[in-house]
Amino acid sequence: MIQMYRVSKKIHNTTVLEDVNLHVGKGEFVLLVGPSGAGKSTLLRLLHFDDRPTEGWIRVGEYSSSALKDRQIPLLRRKIGIIFQDFKLLKDRNIFENVAFALRVTGTRKSLTKRKALQTLTAVGLAHRRDAMPNQLSGGEQQRVSIARALVNDPFVLLADEPLGDLDKEASSNILELLKEINHRGTTVVMATHDEDLAAHMPYRCIRIENGRIL
Amino acid sequence: MGLGYAFREAILGLYRARGMSLVSIGTTAVSLLVFGIFLLVTLNLYGIVGQVRRRIEIEVYLSDDIDDKEALDLKRKVEAINGVKEVDYIDKEKAADEFRQAFGEGLLEAVSQNPLPASLRIKVEDTFSTSDKIKEIVKQIEKRRGIEEIEYGRQWVERLDRLTLIVTVADLVIGLVIGLSSIFVVANTVNLTILARRESIEIMKLVGATDNFIQIPFLLEGIIGGTLGGALASAILYFSYNWAVVHFPRITFAPSNLAVALMIPLGAILGGLGSRISVKRVLKSLA
């Protein structure tokens, strides 16, 4: 499913990741745990090819870093879902349009786009707020929208970069439940977090990362 | 992506960022208005120079020893010279009539014989109305028999040549400055509207939009915004020019419709290009 082999990443001559080997199997829920600046986000960015490794190779599903051309990156991104700490919603579009956008980029028919976007919003419990703008929602709700957008194309893996970082306790636990449920239905989840406590209480594999190295 | 979708996105884009869109359309309109005013001034300046040049005539005075037949023969030969547009034969009698019209009866009657020579009055083609070209024509006429004197206001034509040169150079320099600043101002404003949506572009890429999928609506948005700015500039130019034409009837204004309408495609091109360059730059920085 996901494989990293001897991956290193240097940014402006600073080594951000060094000699990382990683394997994530189909249907797994994996936590990437480490302090801020440890290299968790860089690792996730490499997985959705927002950046390329300086050394080593990466395989995500059928895509390999050695063979993937820049123009194929959008195709890969349509098959993986990504969520972020700051939600990254299109602020000038309503909730429905944010989710529908991920379908439109794939060329999905208008009628199907509408149906699927609404179905996914229903699944995250936000169909009733489909006309609201992102700034009219709470942090937890915005993260739900971003999850809906990530899921709407039925991805084989969901990458989550500190998805609970900006949320209060209750919203965090709701989002976490949602992520567990998504994983339970078969989607692989890779979640980065700096919260050691949270990681300790989760029944999933933890990968510790510090100073760019996997411990 | 269907063109319908891209077009709808472009219109929505203009609406969503309406504040910035208005600034961008307004800036395009003002820039093109300045350029349009310059263009109209230029057109009229050249119109005036052209009118003056069309008045240039070469007067070839014939000696008294050639008769009408020889004179008409000479007329035909002059007509065949390259650059000659029209030749009028003014015989002695007609010259006297013209003299009487200009200076009244009496003066001419005081002398026993008509002292005025017959002449050929030559009009040259517009492209031959410079001092050098006129000299060439004159040279070809000079060698013919029966010519007393040739006059064409040499100093005056040379002065007009110098004036035209100064006007042309100044016009080109001013035009270049205005043109470049228009491009600069419009491109920068469009760039700002795109930069304000850099985050949106980044998000679009993250959810798997291809560069084209992102670019085309922005390109259309730039073209539509630019067209609106151009149309606004055109409308202002059109109404103020026509106002001037009505209120200053003594001035002959050059036809302006084409130059005025030109602002619309210019706006479209500026808006489209500015948008395309800016989005490309943002996409490149995100790659």
Question: Layout of SSEs?
Answer:
The complex is a heterodimer of chains A (215) and B (287).
Chain A: E1 2-11, E2 14-24, E3 29-33, H1 40-47, E4 55-60, E5 63-64, H2 73-77, E6 80-84, H3 95-104, H4 110-123, H5 139-151, E7 157-161, H6 169-184, E8 188-193, H7 196-200, E9 205-210, E10 213-214
Parallel strand pairs in A: 3-8, 3-9, 6-7, 7-8
Antiparallel strand pairs in A: 1-2, 1-4, 4-5, 9-10
Chain B: H1 3-16, H2 18-54, E1 57-62, H3 68-79, E2 84-90, H4 92-103, E3 119-124, H5 131-142, E4 147-151, H6 154-195, H7 198-206, H8 211-247, H9 257-286
Antiparallel strand pairs in B: 1-3, 1-4, 2-3
Helix pairs in contact in B: 1-2, 1-8, 2-6, 2-8, 2-9, 6-9, 8-9
What this model shows, in words?
The complex is a heterodimer of chains A (215) and B (287). Chain A is an alpha/beta fold. Chain A has helices spanning 40-47, 73-77, 95-104, 110-123, 139-151, 169-184, 196-200; strands spanning 2-11, 14-24, 29-33, 55-60, 63-64, 80-84, 157-161, 188-193, 205-210, 213-214. Chain A has a six-stranded mixed beta sheet, with helices on both faces. A four-stranded antiparallel beta sheet of chain A has the order 2-1-4-5, covered by helices on one side. In chain A, strand 7, helix 6 (169-184) and strand 8 (188-193) form a beta-alpha-beta unit. The longest helix of chain A has 16 residues, at 169-184. Chain A starts with a strand and ends with a strand. Chain B is α+β, with helices and mostly antiparallel strands and 287 residues long. Chain B has two domains: 3-51 and 161-286, no CATH class; 57-151, Alpha-Beta Plaits. Chain B has helices at residues 3-16, 18-54, 68-79, 92-103, 131-142, 154-195, 198-206, 211-247, 257-286; strands spanning 57-62, 84-90, 119-124, 147-151. Chain B has a four-stranded antiparallel beta sheet. In chain B, helix 1 (3-16) crosses helix 8 (211-247), helix 2 (18-54) packs across helix 9 (257-286) and helix 8 (211-247) runs antiparallel to helix 9 (257-286). Chain B is elongated. The chains are: A alpha/beta (215), B alpha+beta (287). At the A-B interface, helix 2 and helix 3 of A face helix 7 of B.
